[in-house]
Amino acid sequence: MIILPAIDLRHGKVVRLIKGDFDKETKYSDDPVEMAKKWANQGAEMLHVVDLDGALEGKPVNLSIIKEIASEIDIPIEVGGGIRNLEDINAVLDSRVKRVILSTAACENQELLKEAVETFGESIVIGIDAKNGVVMKRGWIKSAEIDAIELTLELQKIGIKRIIYTNIEADGTLSGIRFNNIKKFIEKTNVKVTASGGVSTINDIKQLKTLENQGLEAVIIGKALYDNYLSLKEAIEAAK
């Protein structure tokens, strides 16, 4: 199981939101590239980068910054936020990005998903962002009106092999993971899962590691790292 530090971009800065609420934003750095270097130098094996402006606008907005991050560090990155057509997928992958995360597109355009999987294979990852078990889309501001597990089972038929499962109610709150929700999601699906939302202690990571043999391959950590609730080194050691 690996740890992915999160870098959320808004207006060119590194920020964190609480439960995806754009009115509850904390800025942590004016220099996303230096932040990426920091996590890479501390031992991160991969970074999770989200273009929050892109998620709202429906197209990549911070692509120049993402390109610079990818060129300045030696570890892979995965990128999500507003990527909703093949041209945008191509543009992001051409920026030396390893994986593209599709979220809204997974709810609204399964023909695109099929074509994307056929073209790009395992470079395509789906973000399932759930609130009370229901998938949210378009920057988490609209309900997709479909159960997270139900949608994932549909996506498996298309050939999706990786899911980033985010519990919105816990995201950015430092309130701890919703372990039972993640466990149920993993048990009911047959995909490789990255868990996101609420990680605040080493115990959270140790608890999630018990799901590794069932399909949990990674954990995304954001606010807990930025607010020094735990160190990246500690998190990586616990994950190993």
Could you walk me through the main structural features you see in this protein, from its secondary elements to its overall organization?
By secondary structure, the protein is of the alpha/beta class. It has a single domain (2-239), classed as TIM Barrel, CATH 3.20.20. It is 38% helix and 30% strand. The chain has helices spanning 32-41, 52-57, 63-72, 86-93, 104-108, 110-120, 148-158, 179-188, 202-209, 223-226, 232-239; strands at 2-10, 13-18, 21-29, 47-51, 77-80, 99-102, 124-131, 134-137, 142-147, 162-167, 192-196, 216-221. It is globular and about 40 Å long.
Short description:
The chain has a single domain (2-239), classed as TIM Barrel, CATH 3.20.20. Helices cover 38% and strands 30% of the residues.
Q: What order do the helices and strands come in, and which of them pair?
A:
Elements: E1 2-10, E2 13-18, E3 21-29, H1 32-41, E4 47-51, H2 52-57, H3 63-72, E5 77-80, H4 86-93, E6 99-102, H5 104-108, H6 110-120, E7 124-131, E8 134-137, E9 142-147, H7 148-158, E10 162-167, H8 179-188, E11 192-196, H9 202-209, E12 216-221, H10 223-226, H11 232-239
Parallel strand pairs: 1-4, 1-12, 4-5, 5-6, 6-7, 7-10, 10-11, 11-12
Antiparallel strand pairs: 1-2, 2-3, 7-8, 8-9
Radius of gyration: 16 Å
Shape field: globular
Helix amount, in percent?
25-40%
Number of domains as seen in the coordinates: 1
The secondary-structure element order is EEEHEHHEHEHHEEEHEHEHEHH
Distance between the termini: 6 Å
Mean pLDDT: 91
Approximate strand percentage = 25-35%
Strand order across the largest sheet: 1-4-5-6-7-10-11-12
CATH architecture identity:
Alpha-Beta Barrel
- CATH superfamily caption: Aldolase class I
- The CATH class, by name, is Alpha Beta
Report the CATH topology name.
TIM Barrel
Number of helices: 11
| Global structural class | alpha/beta
Number of strands: 12
Which blocks of ≥5 consecutive residues have pLDDT under 50? none
Largest sheet: 8 strands, parallel, barrel
